[in-house]
Specification:
The complex is a heterodimer of chains A (290) and B (259).
Chain A (H helix, E strand, L loop, with lengths): L10 E4 L11 E7 L3 E8 L2 E9 L4 H13 L11 E5 L11 E2 L2 H13 L5 E5 L4 E6 L5 E7 L7 H11 L6 H4 L15 H13 L4 H23 L5 E4 L6 H11 L13 H17 L4
Parallel strand pairs in A: 2-5, 5-6, 7-10
Antiparallel strand pairs in A: 1-4, 2-3, 3-4, 7-8, 8-9
Helix pairs in contact in A: 2-8, 6-7
Chain B lengths: L1 E7 L3 E8 L2 E9 L4 H16 L6 E7 L11 E2 L2 H12 L5 E5 L4 E6 L5 E7 L7 H11 L6 H6 L12 H13 L4 H23 L5 E4 L6 H11 L3 E2 L7 H16 L1
Parallel strand pairs in B: 1-4, 4-5, 6-9, 9-10
Antiparallel strand pairs in B: 1-2, 2-3, 6-7, 7-8
Helix pairs in contact in B: 2-8, 3-5, 3-6, 6-7
Classes of the chains: A alpha/beta (290), B alpha/beta (259).
């Protein structure tokens, strides 16, 4: 079987500082996206563990797998968790979630925790959509714009290019800077047309790093247009899988002339993290603590 | 008097030669990555078919995305203009022209004299062009020319949610996994595309008669879906993929007379 360059690595993390058994309130958020799924577990309001893996064809199964993967080796099991909030494209299909909330609300809430209360604009670049979200100091959404109709400016577009150029997806950002001068951006918006344009450029003798640079800046330009429509208020942060692609992130920053905040954790877990935070608030409400 | 029309499109270059208002030759050559060479090759093959040489042509008019690449052309005409020019000759009752090529879709409203009243173009998104069907055919592992006949055998209408060709590809894979038949999926692909084309045409207002040209007019499945969507009969000329080249050739003849 041929190499699948788009296959990004699955991952998990456990906090070395928290004792899972000593927690009084254990909550979780599950973000079942169209391409990736994340599970985040929080103990008494602190991040305890998380996982990130590829969504399969079956949402409930992917949710189950993400949760089990996050809890691996922690000594906790699913029934130890007091409240689970589901979010993302597959949120209505999570059998063990008590509540489903939109990913817009969860991303803003998660970004508020991850980047601090100064965040006012969040760009979430997901696998099959892209959202520009404005929020207040509490992480409450005040406005948002979204593109979920077109692959341009989404992780899927980048995956198509990973396969076309035979570059592992996690190397794409770094490689896109290995050019002498920045080429003009790919002119097609549509990923299908951009792909044929790129094939033409390769035929003309462009090295793949240069083609990658041209696509990365086209992608950055595309999402900057979305951001300009909603107007960026600082601080600014990027979440989602593309937040890990420095080739796109740095080009967005250059075009906006605004630096994005550095994430404290994996930027891809923002949605699930927001879910876990909402779950905590819901438990507190139930217990009469709020 | 002999003239030629050259339609240098995204996927192929088409040449049509008219001799005293009669079609003498029609040739298409895949453009690949060298549209200039493809246009020249198509012209030379068409001249050979017609038994003519380049010197016998009084005027050559170029159209299509790559019209600037046609170095031997005497003049140019827009694709919209060429479509209108050809269709009013082919079907004098035509008032709406829909032209779906490989990478572009157009809807044009024309007057009884064949003048362009209004038009809409999609050149930005593969979902409204022939590339869409081609991509889906590849995913279904079906030859693109079989997509039409296959979809006519469909028993069930399966809805497709994705608009983007990239997302639709994943959706087709999911539909295959969900055990939908290739026939039903092929129809879903054409229905989805017809829906987008129809909404583009509705933006400029649809008048009868409706004429469909361009490569997609050869796909009977798509024609069926569009007909069902518009609830109107759709007229299709013979050799619909040459209508832009014909429009250019008719323009060339007119300009040669005027000169």
């Amino acid at each position: 079987m041929s190499t699948e360059y788009w296959r990004w690595p699955e991952s998990r993390w456990t906090s070395p500082e928290i004792d899972g058994k000593a927690g009084r309130m254990i909550t979780a958020g599950l973000d079942v996206g169209s391409v990736s799924s994340q599970a985040v577990v929080m103990i008494d309001g602190a991040l305890f563990c998380y996982s990130s893996l590829r969504t399969g064809s079956n949402s409930p199964e992917s949710a189950q797998r993400a949760m089990e993967y996050a809890l691996t080796g922690t000594g906790l099991i699913l029934t130890d968790i007091h409240y689970v909030v589901g979010t993302g494209y597959g949120r209505v299909n999570i059998p063990f979630a008590q509540r489903a909330l939109t990913e817009i609300a969860c991303h803003a809430r998660g970004a508020n925790f991850m980047y601090g209360p100064t965040v006012r604009t969040i760009l979430d670049m997901g696998g099959q959509d892209c959202k520009a979200i404005r929020c207040d100091a509490k992480g409450k959404v005040t406005n948002f714009l979204m593109n979920d109709k077109c692959a341009a400016g989404t992780g899927r577009g980048m995956e198509v290019f990973a396969d076309l150029l035979s570059v592992p997806i996690e190397d794409m950002g770094r490689l896109s800077f290995e050019v002498d001068t920045e080429p003009p951006p790919v002119s097609s918006t549509c990923v299908v047309f951009a792909k044929s344009e790129a094939v033409g450029l390769l035929r003309k003798g462009w090295p793949k790093e240069r083609v990658l640079a041209a696509y990365s800046s086209a992608m950055a330009h595309r999402v900057v247009e979305l951001l300009e429509r909603i107007q960026v208020e600082q601080d600014f942060a990027i979440t989602g899988g593309i937040a890990k692609n420095e080739g796109v992130v740095k080009r967005i920053e250059a075009e906006l002339k605004i630096k994005a905040l550095e994430p404290k954790y994996d930027a891809q877990i923002a949605g699930a993290l927001g879910g876990a935070l909402f779950a905590k608030a819901l438990v507190e409400k139930e217990r009469g603590l709020r | 008097m002999n003239v030629a029309g050259v339609d240098c499109g995204a996927k192929s270059a088409k040449v049509l030669i008219l001799g005293d208002e009669k079609v003498l030759a029609r040739v298409a050559v895949l453009s690949g990555f060298d549209p200039k060479a493809a246009a020249a090759q198509a012209l030379d093959e068409a001249l050979k078919q017609a038994g003519l040489s380049r010197g016998d042509l009084s005027h050559v008019t170029a159209t299509g995305t790559g019209k600037n690449e046609v170095v031997f052309a005497t003049s140019e005409i827009t694709e919209v203009g060429a479509d209108a020019r050809a269709v009013i000759v082919l079907f004098p009752a035509a008032r709406t022209v829909i032209d779906i090529g490989a990478e572009e879709g157009r809807a044009i409203r024309i007057s009884p004299e064949g003048k362009v009243i209004d038009f809409a173009i999609n050149e930005k998104c593969a979902a409204g062009a022939g590339t869409f069907t081609e991509t889906m055919a590849r995913t279904l592992e079906v030859a693109v020319e079989d997509m039409g006949p296959l979809s006519l055998k469909s028993q069930n209408a399966v809805p497709m949610n994705a608009q983007c060709a990239v997302f639709a590809e994943s959706e087709v894979v999911s539909l295959i996994h969900a055990k939908h038949s290739k026939e039903d999926i092929a129809r879903a692909v054409h229905d989805a595309m017809a829906d987008r084309i129809a909404s583009m045409a509705r933006k400029i207002g649809i008048d009868k008669s409706i004429v469909l040209v361009g490569g997609m007019a050869k796909n009977v499945g798509f024609v069926n879906s569009l007909q069902r969507n518009l609830k109107e009969e759709i007229l299709i000329p013979e050799n619909p993929e040459y209508s832009c080249a014909l429009g250019a050739a008719l323009t060339a003849a007119e300009r040669a007379k005027g000169a």
